[in-house]
């Protein structure tokens, strides 16, 4: 379970988050929506431990998030706008590097399976410096789930992916969801929200404006919720 209590974030004179209280239970799949500047990515980075909040608390299973707490960090997987990959390394070498960081034992089988799962098996030994944006994103997805996290934090994860890659990625997410992994996804991609998520939280000007179950709702309803036009019934 992840909970943020009274989270604020001020950068310079601008307040990005204004007291965000949000609880997400283990196994939930939640979309975080909002216009540019609403505070979505800022909130996600704070939960991931990549950014320090100005005020408030982040709890993981009721325990406050602590800086450099390895056991807490091990439970989280994060996919942001940066891939965190090394362009001189091949996909195999990149994942081997991160496997060492996570102190994974005998990771080779999982590394090769993930590379196959994201559709990069023919390129697994090629340096990624020549990879397309979509190929880099595929490998970054594999990096984010390599250590089998309990919570997966995704910031615009479908960016740069072609339709085949989107299908592969969604299948991976649905498998993780079935295993009880918590999925929190910042996105503007309403069809993908509809395919993956059961709940939508909408931020407006740094505050939660809507928090609704969207399971079984059509894409048009989710879009109207985003626009502030949907009824809660």
UniProtKB/TrEMBL annotation:
CDD domains: ABC_DR_subfamily_A. Residues 2-230 form the ABC transporter domain. The keyword Transport applies. One of its GO terms (biological process) is cytochrome complex assembly. Keywords: ATP-binding, Cytochrome c-type biogenesis, Nucleotide-binding, Transport. It comes from the Bacteria. It holds the Pfam family ABC_tran. GO terms for molecular function: ATP binding; ATP hydrolysis activity; transmembrane transporter activity. The keyword Calcium does not apply. SUPFAM superfamilies: P-loop containing nucleoside triphosphate hydrolases. This is Heme ABC exporter ATP-binding protein CcmA. It comes from Salipaludibacillus keqinensis. The lineage of its organism: Bacteria, Bacillati, Bacillota, Bacilli, Bacillales.
């Amino acid at each position: 379970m992840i909970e943020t209590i009274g989270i604020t974030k001020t950068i310079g004179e601008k307040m990005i988050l204004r007291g965000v209280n949000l609880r997400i239970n283990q196994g939930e799949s939640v979309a975080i929506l909002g216009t540019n500047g609403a505070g979505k990515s800022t909130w996600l980075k704070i939960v991931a431990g990549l950014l320090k909040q100005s005020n408030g608390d982040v709890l993981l299973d009721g325990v406050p998030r602590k800086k450099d707490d390895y056991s807490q960090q091990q439970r989280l997987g994060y996919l942001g706008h940066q891939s965190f990959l090394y362009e001189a390394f091949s996909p195999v070498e990149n994942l081997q590097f991160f496997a060492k960081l996570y102190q994974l034992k005998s990771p080779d089988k999982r590394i090769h399976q993930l590379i196959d799962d994201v559709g990069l098996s023919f390129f697994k030994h090629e340096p990624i410096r020549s990879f397309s944006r979509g190929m880099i994103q595929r490998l970054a997805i594999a990096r984010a789930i390599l250590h089998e996290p309990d919570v997966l934090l995704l910031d615009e994860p479908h960016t740069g992916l072609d339709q085949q890659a989107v299908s592969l990625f969604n299948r991976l997410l649905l498998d993780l969801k079935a295993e009880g992994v918590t999925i929190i996804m910042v996105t503007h991609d309403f069809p993908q929200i509809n395919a993956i998520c059961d709940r939508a939280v909408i931020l407006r000007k740094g505050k939660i404006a809507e928090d609704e179950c969207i399971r079984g709702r059509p894409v048009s309803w989710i879009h109207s919720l985003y626009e502030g036009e949907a009824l809660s019934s």
